[in-house]
Design brief:
Order of helices and strands of chain B: EEEEEEEEEEE
Strand content of chain B: over 45%
Shape of chain A: globular
Largest sheet of chain B: 7 strands, mixed
Radius of gyration of chain B: 13 Å
Number of helices of chain A: 0
Distance between the termini of chain B: 37 Å
Structural class of chain A: mainly beta
Mean pLDDT of chain B: 92
Strand order of the largest sheet of chain A: 1-9-8-3-4
Oligomer: heterodimer
Largest sheet of chain A: 5 strands, mixed
Shape of chain B: globular
Structural class of chain B: mainly beta
Low-confidence stretches of chain B: none
Helix content of chain B: under 10%
């Protein structure tokens, strides 16, 4: 099972763009890369998912290089409410077994 | 549509007692997953149901944990007897298909064993 490595924490200011990079060196051919956001006392919330190149939705962008050994979640113009833990997950089926990781704690300051 | 609902949101029980956690997935979601975060550690997979069948229960820690999903709708996770190390937050998630994207998680049940 592919494991992921992310920074433990990051600080930013309101209005800045935040990029969180995740390493997943042994990602399998069928694996997708998915990012979740979690606020205190809530369950993780799906943000974005991709397989290769770039994916963008109304919340974030996901950049995946050709070798797929890493990915970068980009949050444009963060606000205080974006303070949360962000998880990078890889897998295809069966429920992200044992690979949730510690996540990246993003703290957005005014 | 209603999200994934977990009940109770909090539970405090004494060591040796029994606790049953419940998860109501999104209607029509055949796939249901249980996870837990113990004592501030990483979120870990417990098991996966497809309808009423256990697809994968490789993450269940021991035989004190019993998960059921009768009729393929809601699921229960029973801990009997509870131990101190079972304290943590138990999350449930559901999805329409068995692919790892777009899971909807519940808010979790915080279990404290004293």
């Amino acid at each position: 099972l592919a494991k992921t490595t992310q920074p433990i924490s990051m600080d930013s200011y309101e209005g800045q763009e935040v990029n969180i990079t995740c390493s997943h060196n042994n990602i399998a051919t069928n694996d997708y890369i998915t990012w979740y956001q979690q606020f205190p006392s809530q369950g993780p919330r799906f943000i974005i998912q991709g397989y290769k190149t770039k994916v963008t939705n109304e919340v974030a962008s996901l950049f995946i290089p050709a070798d797929r050994k890493s990915s970068t979640l980009s949050l444009p113009r963060v606000s205080l409410s974006d303070t949360a833990v962000y998880y990078c997950l890889v897998g295809y089926t069966g429920g992200f077994k044992t690979i949730f990781g510690a996540g990246t704690r993003l703290f957005v300051k005014a | 549509e209603a999200g994934v609902t977990q009940f109770p949101s909090h539970s405090v029980i004494e060591k040796g007692q029994t606790v049953t956690l419940r998860c109501d997935p999104i209607s029509g979601h055949d796939n249901l997953y249980w996870y837990r975060r113990v004592m501030g550690k990483e979120i870990k997979f417990l098991l996966h149901f497809v309808k009423e069948s256990k697809q994968d229960e490789s993450g269940m820690p021991n035989n004190r944990f019993l998960a059921e999903r009768t009729g393929g709708t809601y699921s229960t996770l029973k801990v009997q007897p509870a131990e101190l190390e079972d304290s943590g937050v138990y999350f449930c998630a559901s999805s329409l298909e068995n692919v790892n994207y777009g899971y909807t998680f519940g808010s979790g049940t915080r279990l404290t064993v004293v």
